[in-house]
Design a protein that fits this description.
This protein is α+β, with helices and mostly antiparallel strands. It is built from 10 helices and 6 strands, in the order αβαββααβαααααββα. The chain is globular, with a radius of gyration of 18 Å.
Amino acid sequence: MGDAQNKENHHGAYTIDVVSDVVCPWCYLGKARLELAIAEVQDQIGVDINWRPYRLNPDYPKEGVDQKKALAEKLGGEERVAQAHKMLSDYGREVGIAFDFEAIKIGPNTLDAHRLIHWAMIEGREKQDKVVAALFKANFEEGRNVGDHAVLLDIADKAGLDRSVIASLLASEADRDLIVAEIKAAQEMGVNGVPFFIFDQQYAVSGAQTPDVLANALRDIAKAKAEARSGLN
């Protein structure tokens, strides 16, 4: 069984590295759209997703900032913010996301959230995906502060991670430098906005593309790889 599984993964699965931040609404949209795209092609293509870190607001203090004030400054006024939120809410409804921007009071520093995502990946992709989904939902649908260790511990617990282990890791400096270095490497590679999708470590797609664009990208890669393999045989 193990060998057959490995063989299938080796030949049939494509890796998508998703560079994202848990406070990026377009990344949450991108996640939902990617899942729809994968559902569309899953009969032909197996897909493994790795979540990679990015920080939209690396300068935010540990306790976070006043979200409404920071957004108004960033986007150029409350009217602009309202327009952006309306558009995102409309897009969200199409893919089953209930954005509640009013509920978000704190704009958090997301370094610890990214550390949690990293530790979840050590336990496996399924746990990492659960943690990522819960972080997006906590921030965008429940207005919870994903920079708060109590919130992160609750999410870790529900995803099946060991609460006491995560608590001691969060209290330490563990893997902070690793996350910062990984973000720097992504930026040096040309990632300057998220979400950013890297298909099979060689094809890049930027932005929260629609499911059909992502599904077509997966099909194109599968075709290219199949042709490359047949050329080698």
